[in-house]
Amino acid sequence: MTNTESLPTLLIIPTGIGCDVGGYAGDAIPVARLLASASDCLITHPNVMNGGSLYWPDTRIQYVEGYSLNLFAAGEVLLKPVRQQKVGLLLDAGLEPDLKKRHLQVADGCVASLGLDIGPVMTTERAIRINLKKGVSGSSWGDIEEPGILLRGAQKLKKAGATAIAVITRFPDESGELETKLYRQGKGVDIIAGLEAVISHFLVKHLLIPCAHAPGLAPLPIDYNLDPRTSGEEIGYTFLQSVLVGLSRAPDLICKLDIEKKGNSLLQENTLLSNRNLGAVVVPQGALGGEAVLSCIERLIPLIIVTNQGVLNVSSTKMRLDCLSSDQSESILYADNYVEAAGLITALRHGINIKSLRRPIDCLK
Q1: Whole-model pTM?
Q2: Domains of the chain
């Protein structure tokens, strides 16, 4: 690898754990843009890039749903960048007519103004019905009462030609709840985010095509103490815009087993990304227990642990990363913020020894 080549980097900020950066409505998009500039190839997930009514398309950023991202890090799936996906819309039968129409208007606007390829559109046989919950740690999650109905609708869309799926389900309105008030003021966890991840994980597991979720909610009353990080969700009727933009260029998911069955001709394509290409993974301190992170540690891919407070406490100390072998510990790096993380990625990309940037510098023995 020469100094001018990209350093594919994985950026993970888990959903629904209230991170200071990435726990709100697209407030990690500036981080993604910075790290994409440093690496020239950033792989990240919808929680980072979805900003409600706000979004930022960047050809250097690969939009990969969280379950797919785990498969990619484990080497079970390869990513194939595309020019454009055909994004099917799956609408929950529980959406009221006006709310359903608002989402269709967003889709029309994305076709007319952004040139996206959207359709077909289908509505589930009956309401999906979901329940929001909160874990002991404080993270958000939930369950789906009609998963079979959800999956059948998505399968019909795929069969009808959709190469990616945006699903809109009716979420319960929680405007009067304390959790929602705290979140809007920048002091709480996004109560709907955990279940959004459950929905997209479920669909990708069964369909293996890019999927992302947008919640259907009634507009909230104005809040004069609104935290700027939540503003992207407050300036429109839906959260669908950023989802459609992200999915429109999401890479295809190529199963490694399919490649092995058909021969290695696909592997010769320079456009395919595998976990072997990864040069670094960036993750918050306290959120180190995910499958993708563990896969990267096992493969000695440089792990950049960033101070980014959330409700989880799966830290480097609790993971006993300080007890790793010398070869493994050398691939663990720490950053106080994402600006510093970008500097570490730049150093890795250009072959600069990180030790030479720190003081004091130990003598060789």
Answers
A1: 0.93
A2: 9-77+257-357 (3.40.50), 86-252 (3.40.50)
